[in-house]
Write a structure and sequence with these properties.
The protein is mainly alpha-helical. It is built from 26 helices and two strands. The chain has a two-stranded antiparallel ribbon with strand order 1-2.
C-alpha cells in the first residue's frame, strides 16, 4: 500500500499546485467565470454569445500553441497506438489536454483560453488518427506483406487532411444550427474544463472534485485491479431442463461513461440502450434458438452455434448486422445533410465573390476552394504516388467514403463523443464496398486486397479525424475561437501525430508481432483483414450486413434517430448501460427541481461540471495505467487479484462500486445551499 500512499501524496501536491496556478493566479480574460446556460441550448445558435467576445482578439494560432499542441498530439498518438493494438480501444485526448495544456501554457506565461483550446484540439487529432492507423494498416503485416513508416505517414496525412476539410462545409450546420440539439458531450466537458481552469471559483471546485473522484475510481479498478471494469452476467432461462432463452447483461463500470451519460441526457442514452436490447435480447437469442440444432458451424463462424456463448454470437454475427445498420444510418444522414452541404457551399462561394464584405471572426473558415482542391489533390496523390499507387477507382472511392463517413462521424461525436465513435463499424462498411467494387473491375488477389485496404485506411483515418475535428470546432464555437485558425492548427498537428503514431506502431509490431500467445491482438485490424479477404474470396456474410441495413431503414421509417439505435446494436450493451446510468441521474435531477427552473438549471450545470471532471479523471488515469502497461509494471501494480481475489473477481462487488459512484454523483449535485448559483 506504500505505492498507493505515495500516489495520493503526489496527486495532492499536483492538486494544490493546480489550484495555486488557476484559482489564486487565474486571469479571467473575458470578464466571466463560467459558461452561460445558453452554451447548452435554449437559444438559436446564431444568437448565442460565446465565452470570449467576437470583438476580442486573444492569442490563438501562435507558435507556442502549435508547438505545445503538436507535442501532446504526438504523445497521445503513440499512447493510443499501443492501446489500440493491445486491446482495441483508444483514450480521449481533448479533455485531459484541456487541463494539461492549460497548465503548461500558464507555466510558460501564456494566459489565453483560446491558445489552450488550440492545444486541446490539436492533441485530440493525435488520439483520433491513432485509431484510424491501427484499425486498418496492421492487416498488411497479417498478410505477411511489408509496411514502411513512409507508407503509414503518407496514408495518415492524406486521410487526415480529408477528415479536417470535409467537416468545414458542415461546421455551421452541426455547430450553429444544431446548437442544443447535438449535445457534443466531450466538447462541452472540455469547454467547462478550459473555462473553469481559467476562471477558478466554485465551478473549478466541481470540475476538480469530479477529476479527483474519476481518477481515484479508475486507478482502483483499472490500476490496482480491485474490481472488474466490465462485470457481465450470462442469462440462461430454461423450461423442463431445456434452454429457451440465452443472452447476457453487463455494465462498463467506468466513471467516464457515467459522466458522458449525464452530459448527453436520458434520450440519447435510451436510444442506445434500445439498440443494445434489440441485439442482446432479440437477435442473439434468436440466432441461438435457430442454430441450437445445427451440428456444423454456420458461416461466418467456425464453430457450431450450440457451442457458442452470447458474446461469441455477437462477435461472429451481430457485429456485421450492426455495421450494416450504421452504414444505413450513414447514408440516411448523408441524404438529409445534402441540402445543408449545398447551402453551405453556395454561401462559401458567394462569400468568395463578395470579398469586400466583412465576416465575423467566429464565422471564418478555410475557403471552400481548399476543401475541393484538397479532395482533388488527395485523389491524385493516392492514385499516382508510388508509395500508395492505388487503382484510380479505389482512390476515388476512398475520397467519396471519406466524405460520407466524415459527415456521419462528426454527427455521432455530437451525440455521444469521440470516445464512443464506432470508427471500426464505418470502416467495415467502407471496406465492404471498396473491395467489392475493385473486385468487380478486375483488381483482385493480394494486389487487390492491399489496394482495398490502403484505400479503406485513408477513409478510416478521415472518419476518425472528422470526429476529432467536429469536437474541436464545437469547443471553439462555445468559447468564441476562430474556426479558420483551429482548422489550420489541426492540419499542422496531423504531421507530428502521423510520424509519432506510425513510428510507435512499427516499433511495437517489430518487437511483439501480431497474433499468437505473446503477440499484439490488433482486434480491429484482424477483423478488417478478414473482411477484405472474405470479399475477395466470396466468403462474406452479406445477408447479415443487409439485415442490418434493413433494420436501419425501419428505424428511420419509425421516426427514430437511426445512428444512436444503430450504435446500440453495434457496440457492447455494457457501454450503453454505463451511459444510461448517467442519463438516469440527469432525469432524476430534472424531475426533482422541475418546479424551480432556475435552480434546476443550476443543479444541471453543477452536474455537467462534475461529470466533465469524471470524464477527464478517468482519461488521465487511463493514460497512467497505459504507461504502466507499456513499462511492464502493470502486473506489479495490479495487486487486487493477489491480495483480495474474491473481491477482485466478484461481479456483484464491481456493480456495487459503480452504483456507489452513481449515488455519490447524485448527492454531490444535490449538495450546497438551495439558492446557490454555481
Amino acid at each position: 500500500m506504500e505505492f498507493v500512499e505515495k500516489y495520493a501524496r503526489i496527486y495532492n501536491g499536483l492538486y494544490k499546485q493546480y489550484i495555486n496556478i488557476f484559482y489564486l493566479g487565474g486571469v479571467i480574460m473575458s470578464g466571466k467565470n463560467k459558461l452561460s446556460h445558453e452554451a447548452y441550448g435554449g437559444v438559436n445558435g446564431e444568437k448565442y454569445t460565446p465565452y470570449v467576445s467576437v470583438k476580442d482578439a486573444l492569442p490563438e494560432l501562435t507558435i507556442m500553441s502549435i508547438l505545445v499542441g503538436c507535442i501532446f498530439a504526438a504523445i497521445f498518438a503513440a499512447a493510443n497506438v499501443y492501446l489500440a493494438l493491445k486491446v482495441g480501444m483508444t483514450i480521449a485526448a481533448i479533455i485531459p489536454t484541456s487541463i494539461l495544456g492549460t497548465a503548461l501554457l500558464y507555466a510558460l506565461g501564456r494566459k489565453s483560453i483560446l491558445e489552450s483550446n488550440m492545444v486541446a484540439g490539436i492533441a485530440g487529432i493525435g488520439e483520433s488518427l491513432a485509431g484510424g492507423i491501427v484499425f486498418t494498416l496492421p492487416a498488411v503485416v497479417i498478410w505477411n506483406e511489408k509496411l514502411s513508416l513512409l507508407q503509414i505517414v503518407t496514408i495518415t496525412i492524406l486521410g487526415g487532411i480529408l477528415g479536417v476539410l470535409f467537416v468545414i462545409p458542415l461546421r455551421k450546420y452541426l455547430m450553429v444550427e444544431e446548437h442544443g440539439k447535438l449535445s457534443f458531450p466531450e466538447s462541452m466537458a472540455a469547454s467547462e474544463v478550459l473555462v473553469n481552469s481559467s476562471a477558478g471559483g466554485s465551478g473549478l471546485k466541481s470540475v476538480m472534485t469530479g477529476l479527483t473522484g474519476g481518477g481515484i475510481f479508475k486507478f482502483l479498478s483499472g490500476g490496482l485491479l480491485l474490481w472488474s471494469e466490465s462485470p457481465t452476467w450470462m442469462i440462461n432461462l430454461s423450461q423442463n431442463g431445456k434452454s429457451i432463452f440465452q443472452s447476457m447483461f453487463g455494465v462498463d463500470a467506468l466513471a467516464s461513461l457515467l459522466g458522458v451519460g449525464f452530459i448527453v441526457g436520458i434520450e440519447a442514452a435510451l436510444y442506445m440502450f434500445a439498440g443494445g436490447a434489440i441485439a442482446y435480447y432479440g437477435l442473439i437469442p434468436l440466432i441461438k434458438f435457430f442454430g441450437e440444432g445445427a451440428a456444423t458451424a454456420v458461416f461466418p463462424a467456425t464453430i457450431p452455434i450450440a457451442e457458442m456463448t452470447a458474446s461469441a454470437i455477437r462477435g461472429e454475427y451481430i457485429r456485421y448486422i450492426g455495421a450494416g445498420a450504421v452504414a444505413a444510418g450513414g447514408f440516411i444522414s448523408l441524404g438529409k445533410s445534402i441540402p445543408v452541404i449545398i447551402r453551405s457551399m453556395k454561401a462559401a462561394f458567394s462569400g468568395m465573390k463578395s470579398a469586400g464584405e466583412e465576416v465575423k471572426r467566429t464565422d471564418k473558415d478555410l475557403p471552400m476552394t481548399w476543401v475541393i482542391g484538397g479532395a482533388v489533390l488527395v485523389f491524385l496523390l493516392t492514385w499516382l504516388l508510388p508509395i500508395t499507387k492505388i487503382h484510380p477507382v479505389g482512390a476515388l472511392l476512398s475520397v467519396l467514403f471519406s466524405f460520407l463517413f466524415a459527415v456521419v462521424s462528426a454527427r455521432i461525436c455530437g451525440l455521444i463523443g469521440a470516445s464512443n465513435n464506432p470508427v471500426s463499424g464505418m470502416t467495415i462498411a467502407t471496406l465492404l464496398f471498396i473491395t467489392s467494387i475493385l473486385k468487380a473491375v478486375g483488381v483482385v488477389g493480394n494486389k487487390g486486397m492491399i489496394m482495398a485496404l490502403l484505400a479503406g485506411a485513408i477513409a478510416c483515418v478521415a472518419t476518425a479525424v472528422a470526429g476529432g475535428t467536429s469536437q474541436a470546432l464545437k469547443t471553439t464555437f462555445i468559447l468564441g475561437g476562430t474556426p479558420k485558425n483551429i482548422e489550420i492548427g489541426l492540419i499542422l498537428g496531423l504531421i507530428a501525430s502521423a510520424v509519432a503514431g506510425g513510428a510507435a506502431m512499427l516499433l511495437l509490431i517489430n518487437i511483439y508481432g501480431i497474433g499468437g500467445e505473446t503477440g499484439l491482438a490488433a482486434p480491429q485490424a484482424t477483423l478488417m483483414s478478414m473482411v477484405v479477404k472474405g470479399v475477395m474470396d466470396a466468403q462474406l456474410p452479406w445477408t447479415l450486413v443487409l439485415v442490418g441495413a434493413a433494420l436501419g431503414i425501419a428505424i428511420e421509417l419509425l421516426g427514430l434517430p437511426v445512428l444512436p439505435v444503430a450504435l446500440g446494436i453495434y457496440l457492447p450493451i455494457n457501454l450503453s448501460v454505463g451511459i444510461l446510468a448517467g442519463g438516469i441521474v440527469r432525469v432524476v435531477i430534472d424531475k426533482k427541481f422541475k418546479h424551480n427552473d432556475n435552480l434546476r438549471k443550476d443543479k444541471v450545470e453543477k452536474g455537467i461540471l462534475i461529470s466533465s471532471g469524471l470524464v477527464a479523471g478517468d482519461a488521465l488515469v487511463g493514460i497512467l495505467v497505459a504507461g504502466l502497461t507499456a513499462g511492464g509494471v502493470a502486473e506489479a501494480v495490479g495487486i487486487g487479484p493477489r491480495l483480495l481475489p474474491t473481491i477482485a473477481e466478484s461481479k456483484e462487488f464491481a456493480l456495487v462500486m459503480f452504483l456507489i459512484l452513481t449515488y455519490l454523483l447524485y448527492r454531490y449535485i444535490l449538495s450546497g445551499k438551495k439558492n446557490e448559483a454555481n
